[in-house]
Design a protein that fits this description.
Layout (H helix, E strand, L loop, with lengths): L10 H8 L19 H20 L2 H15 L19 H11 L6 H28 L8 H6 L1 H41 L3 H15 L15 H24 L6 H4 L1 H24 L5 H8 L10 H13 L8
Length: 330
């Protein structure tokens, strides 16, 4: 699971991990087509729920950052009157709460995912209320300025920041798994209809890349638990699709279009991602320790710059996603 590791992962890794969802299916768009079948109607309902939940998850990076900063400063002691502003308000959860409620009315029912979304939205609401009140108690310009009351909220703030890690996990994991399942089903249908076209190969490439990411969503101090064989195997599959994409682009260079023109950059980013994945796998298999300079980089919140780390691999994935345009999005 990806999200369940959020409690002990660095916030950079957690923010980046959410970008796995950047390739969310865009099946609602495209040319006119016959009336949808019952199965397609159900899929569109599921997608509507996923859109709502992904919008809610967009707030997670800010909460993780706020929580990590707060717990890093006050994990062993509560704030004092002398401390600069201990916490800033998290985002207003109103849109997320409404989206979660609306998603419940959409068929089909997905009880487990809906329950996870409810817990997530409720925790966002508690966090917003607590951080807003705490901020006001420490803000000298606020009519609610009262540091003593702000300090008294420390225990609740600490608990709810940690609770957020717990409630975010099942929602993220559920959305990720369902999104991947639908994408794979849609891609199979498209390939059966069109054949192994360039857009189909590109979409397959991106899915293979996404399937590799969860293996890196592990805190640096626990990378010995990463499945070296699984990373190596999935990287090999991704590389084979990359080779197929490159061969197709070379063989069809005369068919100049936007997707083919973007091939060199997409291929380069995929190759960089593969290198980062294998560097992480090698660090795990060879038990390569961190150098002193590596440790300094990590302490400075620059883990993504350290070769063979989870953050470096996820950063490379995000660079790949940045140059990818889902079919039908142009």
């Amino acid at each position: 699971m990806i999200g369940s590791r959020a409690m002990v992962a660095g916030w950079t890794t957690r923010i980046a991990a959410l970008l796995v969802l950047a390739g969310l299916v865009l099946g609602c768009r495209g040319k006119k087509r016959p009336p949808p079948t019952p199965a397609e109607v159900e899929t569109q309902g599921i997608l509507a729920k996923l859109y709502a939940y992904v919008a809610c998850l967009d707030e997670a990076p800010r909460v993780f950052k706020l929580g990590d900063v707060y717990l890093e400063r006050f994990g062993t002691r509560p704030p004092t009157v002398a401390d600069a502003m201990p916490v800033f308000p998290s985002g207003d959860p109103e849109k997320c709460v409404d989206a979660v409620a609306d998603a419940k009315t959409v068929k089909p029912a997905l009880p487990e995912l809906e329950q996870a979304a409810d817990a997530y939205a409720q925790t966002l609401t508690v966090l917003f209320d607590l951080t807003t009140v705490a901020h006001d108690h420490f803000d000298r310009t606020s009519k609610h300025f009262d540091p003593a009351k702000g300090i008294a909220l420390h225990g609740r703030l600490t608990a709810v920041f940690r609770q957020f890690d717990t409630v975010q996990a099942p929602l993220f994991d559920g959305v990720y798994a369902l999104n991947q399942k639908i994408r794979r089903e849609q891609l199979a249908k498209r390939e059966a209809k069109e054949g192994r076209t360039f857009p189909v190969i590109v979409e397959d490439l991106m899915m293979r890349a996404a399937e590799l990411v969860p293996l890196a969503a592990t805190p640096l101090e626990r990378i010995d638990q990463i499945d070296h064989a699984a990373i190596t195997a999935r990287a090999g599959v991704l590389e084979s699709v990359l080779d197929e994409m490159t061969a197709f682009a070379v063989a069809n260079a005369v068919e100049v279009n936007e997707m083919l023109r973007s091939h060199p950059l997409l291929a380069a980013r995929t190759q960089s991602y593969l290198v980062a994945a294998r560097q992480l796998a090698n660090r795990v298999s060879d038990h390569v320790p961190l150098s002193e300079s590596d440790k300094l980089m990590i302490e400075s919140k620059n883990e993504a710059e350290v070769v063979g780390t989870p953050a470096a691999m996820i950063s490379a994935y995000n660079e790949l996603v940045a140059v990818y345009s889902p079919p039908g999005s142009r």
